[in-house]
Specification:
139 residues, alpha/beta, Rossmann fold, 6 helices, 5 strands, 44% helix, globular
């Protein structure tokens, strides 16, 4: 079992495009679906349709209106959405953000570097090869 779908919640269009380009470079599999939303509110609306559930959510914390922590609180209290693994990819180095994310069961917290191809490649490789990741995706 591999990763078939990723939901990226990122309000910075340049970062979203960079993520998409890195993912295309890593994996040319036409079966992989990347869905991008600029706001947590729109992403939640998308997730309310159970046909849209991704294998992984990649989440920025610094979002307009509803931030990433607020988004996490909502999905982790939803019986349908709480099992989706969430990886935080943010500029925040704030210790409180890290603790909050850990307490909300994120599977990874990464601070964005300027060039993050290697980071995205590592995340993708982990989720396509890790037995734990496969177990998490089956839930």
């Amino acid at each position: 079992m591999g990763v078939d779908s990723i939901l990226l919640i990122e309000d910075d269009k340049i970062n979203a495009l960079a993520f998409k380009k890195c993912l295309e470079r890593i994996n040319n599999d036409a079966q992989l679906t990347l869905t991008i939303y600029e706001t947590a509110e729109n992403a939640l609306q998308y997730l309310r349709n159970e046909d849209n559930l991704p294998d992984i959510i990649v989440l920025d914390l610094n979002l307009p209106k509803m931030n990433g922590i607020e988004f996490l609180k909502i999905i982790k209290n939803d019986n349908v959405l709480k099992g989706i693994p969430v990886i935080v990819l943010t500029t925040s180095r704030d210790q409180e953000d890290k603790v909050n994310c850990f307490n909300l069961q994120v599977v990874g917290y990464f601070v964005k570097p300027l060039d993050y191809f290697d980071l995205i490649e590592s995340i993708f490789n982990y989720w396509t090869k890790s037995e734990f990741a496969h177990f998490a995706l089956k839930k």
